[in-house]
Structure formats: C-alpha cells, structure tokens
Please model this.
Amino acid sequence: MPGLRYLFDSPDRFIVGTIGAAGEREFYFQIRQGDRLISMATEKSQAAALAERISTIIKEIKKSAPLAAVVNSTRDEAPLELPLDNEFTVGAIGIAFDAAALEIEISFSSDQQPINDGDESDNSVENSIVQVTLDLSQSLSFVTRTQALVAAGRPLCPFCTQAIDPRGHLCPRANGYRR
Model:
C-alpha cells in the first residue's frame, strides 16, 4: 500500500502545538504553505528532541561563522489551526543541514507497521513521508516555541523526575507515600 508524500520547501508556518489540559495534552506538528495544511500527531519527547537537535545545529553554525542568517524572529504564539485533521502519527524524524543553502531539512515518516495477512509475498507498507525545509530563522522560531511549550507541562518531581499529577503524586522513591 503506497504512502502519501508531502514536500514543503518554503513553509509559511511550522510549529508544534497541543490540545488538552496539562497531563493530558496531545502534541501535533503543523505545517502550512499557502493553502496546504498538514497536521501530524507526535509525542512530547519527539518534539522536545527535535527542538534540542535544531538548537544544537544552530549553536554549531554560530560558533563556526557568525551568521546574519540566524535572526531572532517573533515567536508564533497562535494556536493550532482548525480543523485539525491528523494525517498520521509520527514514527521517525530525520534531520539534515544544507550548508550551501543555510537550511535545515526535516523529514517525518509515519509509524505504520507492515500488516502480515499470511501472504509472504507482499507484507510491506510504504510509510507516509512529510519533508519540510526551513531557513535558520524559522528553525530558531520553532525551537523557541517548542521549548516553551514543553516547559509549560506539569512540573517534575525532584525525587523521581516523573511528572507530578495534579490529583496527587505517588513517588516511587518515597515507597508510594505522597509528597
């Protein structure tokens, strides 16, 4: 079964957003270019890891040659655009830096697994793929928003480093006693 392929070579918007209350939030990557809009479900940890990796790439670029191409732009504070039609759940994320164009290229592939219906001849499923190319300013804006969004979640327990549930936290390091 062939997967879908999307290419965003100069997106107007690339963000991570959430739906739901802290502790029950659902995370989505959302990309807009012109009248095309794609939303993909993701895990909080995937969004945080992507932002951290992009941040590291930008820091390395700034070390080797100070660039005017990395400009702090205004952070996109707008919510996810509606209607929110989830194309797929992100499985793997690839990232590359194009030094000639000073752009970061990101690819998202779905987490669909092959379905084995007993027919050994064809049990492969082609994953859906979304590719997006960002300039360094867009990348920095994505990092800033994503890091703030991730930090806005539930506070972490100082003893076990798990998120503290607002209804109470049974800390495993305290033998189940509430802290």
User: Anything to note?
Assistant: The mean pLDDT is 84. Helices lie at 44-64, 136-151. The chain has one domain: 5-116+123-174.
